[in-house]
Amino acid sequence: MQPAVTLRVTRYRPEQESEPTLATYEVPYRKDWVVLDALNYIKDTLDGSLSFRWSCRMGVCGSCGMKVNGSPKLTCASFLSDSLPGPIRVEPLDYFPVVRDLVVDMSDFMRKLKKVKPWIIRHDERPLAEGEYLQTPDQLDAYKQFSMCINCMLCYSACPIYGLEPSFIGPAAIALAQRYNMDSRDEGAPERLEILSEHDGIWQCTFVGECTKVCPKHVDPAGAIQQYKLTGAIHWLKSLLLPRGAR
Amino acid sequence: MSAEAHYTPYHPRWYRRRVSVWWWLQNRAYAGFVLRELTSVFVAFFAGVTLWQLRTLAQGPDAYARFLACLGTPLFVALHAVAFLFVLFHSITWFNLAPKAVVVRLSGKRVPDWVVVGLNYAAWLVLSGAVALIVLRGR
Amino acid sequence: MDRFACDVLVVGGGGAGLRAVIAVAETHPKLRVAVISKVYPMRSHTVSAEGGAAAVIKAGDSLDAHAYDTISGGDWLSDQDAVEAFVREAPEEMLRLEHWGCPWSREPDGHIAVRPFGGMKIERTWFAADKTGFHMLHTLFQTTLKYDAIERYDEWFVTKLLVDAGRCQGVVATELATGKIQVITAKAVILCTGGCGKVFPFTTNANIKNGDGMALAYRAGAPLKDMEFVQYHPTGLPFTGILITEAARAEGGWLLNKDGYRFLQDYDLGKPEPKPVLRSMELGPRDRLSQAFVKEQEKGRTLEGPYGHYVHLDLRHLGARVIDTKLPFVRELCLKYQNIDPVKEMIPVRPVVHYMMGGVSTDIHGATPLPGLYAAGEAACVSINGANRLGSNSLTECLVFGARAGEAAAAFAAAQREPGPSVLAQADDEGRRLEEKFRRKTGGHERIATLRAEMHETMEESAGIYRTGATLEKAAEKLQSLQERFGDLALADHSYTFNTELTAALELSYMLDVAEAIVHSALRRRESRGSHQRTDFPARDDAEFLAHSLAYRGADGRPRVEYLPVTITRWPPGKRVYGR
Ligand SMILES: Cc1cc2nc3c(=O)[nH]c(=O)nc-3n(C[C@H](O)[C@H](O)[C@H](O)COP(=O)(O)OP(=O)(O)OC[C@H]3O[C@@H](n4cnc5c(N)ncnc54)[C@H](O)[C@@H]3O)c2cc1C
Ligand code: SF4
Ligand code: FES
């Protein structure tokens, strides 16, 4: 077993430098360590000023996304042993502004998420006293996959369209819109379609497909966008061909 | 510190990376994607040729004969070969993506992706067969 | 320093905080309401909860049965009026979440499905596969986006509660992205900052669970209730402490010692049956299961690995189909973090610090003794959990008491005037403290990591599953010396921007306060009850200790412990019987 592994970590200290630099750290190698353990080792014993986000260390809170050896990854789910012998390159996620070291700004996503109305929309609310909306396991299955998104931003970091066109609503937000559209309790699909058919919506996507590949939760945002395009196209055709009442 | 490198306390100074023009060379997936985008040029080329064909057809047998002669030149044969490869690439990647856009459910269960892809290929084969039949029989 | 003002400020964007903020927005739409959180709300630790949330919904179940399970599970230290309110309001709260879109698992006919859980006589735990907390939190968060009135301060770290004229009137916080010190004044503040598992070295809890809110309230003069009651969950993965949910046992998993023997049968927890039996064996309460592990270890019947002793959790007989539909996350976690497949292999597990029964003392409306200060969720102690929480009660507690605290705080705020100028002077002082003692601090010799490690060691030794007076005494002294050494901290990061060393230091100081409260409360409670087991006082002592402990911060900075009687309504203290 190798005794140590080298991490090459991007540093960016906005108060001292105008561009990111590279720092190299030597970290003991342990079989059951993930990249996040190595970063914590650095912070605890080598350099307390290294900044990065993390919390759950079990792949569900979505805070620890970074680029590991060039691809977007959850660092709490990336074992050192998968990148031997090293050195391991750790960078902030692409296409987001870097705040400091490995921390990026994701407020852009938070705005976009709100824009797609990710909540149940009903014409008539069912009173609580009448109990639950019935939803069969198959109906649940229809949207379940899209509800698994942990907002980790890996898909944005893999999407060159987002890089070139930052106004693009992007994979996760569209997948979450689709999550509600497909939910048998929801009636808000037409409202969301209107928003997503706008210039910054689904039509910006030219189907690179990388978002789905990097998604750690198998959400398949690319699939969501394609489904959406189909719905959008059919809707458009209908509005073109059918008289108002029949749509 | 460079000239523009001043930091004002309490004001974020984000670093924004510019996307390089060569971003699509970064990995194979991106390159494949750009290639697929490029195929549209060749699809357009085919469409253009067909339009031209229609026009010459309307102009009478002479024009059509000239059109056919033109198609036979090495330049056009080469162009068609290249275009054919691209369109093939386009079709294959397109078919492989089909299950992403169309989620088919039969009695509540999602039909597996390979079935959707398979059906697409089957339809392609049948149609190509039909076209081949018409063309070859027409001789 | 900028000043922001609102009527009700919720600190914490987990399950409790988000439920509270919606309650304010819905019941008092005219009030200015805000939620401040040190992480984006959907990163809060509620996201990790796996197994489910309890509420009576099925025919054959009853509110009394839920209440009795909760009270006996808590070894009669729960306030029974609070438990009755809790079980009564739980079903409606859970339905509300269903209406907001939570993807609850369903019966074939479309009704809500429930599963059994430890210490519960009837199955009543609602679940969303084994990612219940994740789905609840995202549903709540996405629902808050619907309310334009809700203001959010994401990634703002609260460092102090502002108290003036005997009431809480806001907070001081640092905005992580810029390092700016900010004041938010409020007519009422609700603490929903979650638990404090990180006081211990081996825990299921996330990095952000440092007892911040508990320490903030304690420093502001509010008491911490029942802090000696720390729950160990019997099944954590040995190295990481990642939780393997109780649902794994509810679906039929077995706990086996090194001889492949279902050892719980030796500890008065019932007879081994092939199918799970409620309130029996593997579905006993967590305190008893964790204690059984220690006894088993003493008998030399556990296994030993690089990360200490462990036993096996066997799910193999459930088959791939059950595991994949009911416990997909368990399989994912085992494969990813332990490199084993529970379909084919047994999972190594050991008890792990999981949940804090204690917290900021509140009444049944979430109000603390400090006017204007409210608390809910794991940060609070109402108390429904008594000496041992039952699995799946705490997510529901976040909803029921989050809503209650929200409504009560809103009603209180509506009747208050704007905070006066003297809180701003306090805020200035706090700003100066943060600058001088932390951000600009030079010199010093102690490392954060060293102090934290010593605190961890102290807590594990003294406040673990079994405790004695002598080690608790020693621990109290040790913690006091750590408090002093904290003043000599060496900090390397002097920047304003996203300074995580600064927050780590502040979190350490919160944890030290909370650790002291735990140790002092444990030292005073000279009996054994629920999760608090004293080898020097092995019996429950209702004559003296059927009471909540209240830890106040004394003038010398050390905790002062007082007692408050337990409210008993219909269930007089009895014997806890499981498996019979
Ligand atoms: C692994 C695991 C599994 C669990 N499974 C279950 C289960 O199946 N069923 C069940 O009922 N319970 C379960 N629990 C317990 C339950 O999840 C928690 O008790 C509950 O989620 C706590 O929610 P909360 O809202 O009180 O706090 P949290 O969700 O922890 O949120 C705390 C919030 O406070 C904020 N905050 C903290 N400090 C500060 C500060 N200084 N400044 C600003 N903001 C701050 C944080 O940012 C966060 O938003 C589980 C717990 C764990 C650890
Ligand atoms: S879709 Fe996948 S990659 Fe994108 S944010 Fe959600 S979980 Fe992350
Ligand atoms: S730390 Fe939560 S996803 Fe990695």
Give an overview of the whole structure.
The complex is a heterotrimer of chains A (247), B (139) and C (580). With 247 residues, chain A is an alpha+beta fold. Chain A has helices at 35-46, 107-115, 137-144, 154-157, 160-164, 171-181, 189-196, 210-214, 221-241; strands at residues 4-11, 21-28, 65-68, 71-74, 88-91, 98-100, 103-104. Chain A folds into two domains: 4-104, Ubiquitin-like (UB roll) (Roll); 107-246, Alpha-helical ferredoxin (Fumarate Reductase Iron-sulfur Protein, Chain B, domain 2, Orthogonal Bundle), CATH 1.10.1060. Helices cover 34% and strands 13% of the residues of chain A. In chain A, strands 2-1-5-3-4 form a five-stranded mixed beta sheet. Chain A starts with a strand and ends in a 6-residue tail after the last helix. Chain B is mainly α. Chain B contains four helices and two strands; from the N terminus they run αααββα. In chain B, α1 (28-59) packs antiparallel against α2. Chain B is flat, with a radius of gyration of 25 Å. The termini of chain B are far apart. In chain B, 5% of the residues are buried. By secondary structure, chain C is an alpha/beta fold. In chain C, 35% of the residues lie in helices and 19% in strands. Chain C has 15 helices and 24 strands. Chain C has helices at residues 15-27, 63-73, 80-99, 132-144, 212-219, 247-250, 286-298, 319-326, 328-338, 393-414, 422-439, 448-462, 469-486, 500-524, 542-545; strands at 2-5, 8-11, 33-37, 53-54, 114-115, 125-126, 150-154, 156-164, 167-175, 180-185, 188-191, 224-225, 230-236, 254-256, 303-305, 308-314, 347-356, 359-361, 373-375, 380-381, 466-467, 533-534, 547-553, 559-565. In chain C, α5 crosses α14 (500-524), α8 crosses α9 (328-338) and α12 (448-462) runs parallel beside α14 (500-524). Chains in contact: A-B, A-C, B-C. Flavin-adenine dinucleotide binds at residues 11-17, 36-39, 41, 44-46, 48-53, 132-133, 157-158, 192-195, 204-205, 208-209, 212-213, 243, 245, 354-355, 377-379, 391-395, 398 of chain C.
What's the layout of helices and strands?
The complex is a heterotrimer of chains A (247), B (139) and C (580).
Chain A: E1 4-11, E2 21-28, H1 35-46, E3 65-68, E4 71-74, E5 88-91, E6 98-100, E7 103-104, H2 107-115, H3 137-144, H4 154-157, H5 160-164, H6 171-181, H7 189-196, H8 210-214, H9 221-241
Parallel strand pairs in A: 1-5
Antiparallel strand pairs in A: 1-2, 3-4, 3-5, 6-7
Chain B: H1 28-59, H2 61-71, H3 74-101, E1 105-106, E2 109-110, H4 113-137
Chain C: E1 2-5, E2 8-11, H1 15-27, E3 33-37, E4 53-54, H2 63-73, H3 80-99, E5 114-115, E6 125-126, H4 132-144, E7 150-154, E8 156-164, E9 167-175, E10 180-185, E11 188-191, H5 212-219, E12 224-225, E13 230-236, H6 247-250, E14 254-256, H7 286-298, E15 303-305, E16 308-314, H8 319-326, H9 328-338, E17 347-356, E18 359-361, E19 373-375, E20 380-381, H10 393-414, H11 422-439, H12 448-462, E21 466-467, H13 469-486, H14 500-524, E22 533-534, H15 542-545, E23 547-553, E24 559-565
Parallel strand pairs in C: 1-10, 2-3, 2-11, 3-7, 11-19, 18-20, 21-22
Antiparallel strand pairs in C: 4-6, 5-6, 8-9, 9-10, 12-18, 12-23, 13-17, 14-16, 15-16, 16-17, 23-24
The complex binds flavin-adenine dinucleotide, iron/sulfur cluster and FE2/S2 (inorganic) cluster.
